[in-house]
């Protein structure tokens, strides 16, 4: 029996490379909706929103990453995630995400603050996406 096809996945941010390797499937949070990408996917270039990138390796293992936005390029044999910010899901600091969420909510209430409404909304979206990923991983483990 022939090996199942794979797709090369590279996840990078300004801080460096987080993942590079073969995958059976990749899930990503595109601006227009979540994507599921299999090997030999049609070429695609799209923007990412804050959320989870999930990489399923050929052996069935799953790797979870948080991206704060960025770009996604898909070729039939390669997926490249160029993230504004990215980290492994296990490295998300829940307390920091909760604090960021609270700061953003307070900034939205205090319209005369030092942070713009757009910045506060973006920070709130990132914090909520991190907290959602933490909750999803808890359900998977529990």
How much β-strand is present in the residues? 35-45%
How many domains, in number, for the residues?
Answer: 2
Low-confidence spans: pLDDT under 50, at least 5 residues?
Answer: none
CATH class of the largest domain: Mainly Beta
Number of strands: 10
Straight-line N-to-C gap: 35 Å
Pattern of helices and strands: EEEEEEEEEEHH
Structural class: alpha+beta
The geometry reads as globular
The CATH topology assignment of the largest domain is ATP Synthase, domain 1
Q: Kindly state the percentage of residues in helix.
A: 25-40%
**Could you give a short account of the major beta sheet?**
5 strands, mixed
Write the layout of secondary structure elements.
Blueprint: E1 7-13, E2 16-23, E3 25-30, E4 33-37, E5 44-48, E6 51-56, E7 62-67, E8 70-75, E9 78-83, E10 86-88, H1 94-109, H2 117-141
Parallel strand pairs: 1-9
Antiparallel strand pairs: 1-2, 3-4, 3-6, 5-8, 6-7, 7-10, 8-9
Helix pairs in contact: 1-2
Task: Describe this structure in a few short sentences.
This protein is an alpha+beta fold.
Characterization of this structure:
There is one protein chain. The protein is of the alpha+beta class and 142 residues long. The chain folds into 2 domains: 82 residues, Sandwich (ATP Synthase, domain 1), CATH 2.60.15.10; 49 residues. It is 29% helix and 41% strand. It has 2 helices and 10 strands, in the order ββββββββββαα. Strands 2-1-9-8-5 form a 5-stranded mixed β-sheet, with no helix packed on it. The protein has a 5-stranded antiparallel β-sheet with strand order 4-3-6-7-10. The relative contact order is 0.17. The mean pLDDT is 89.
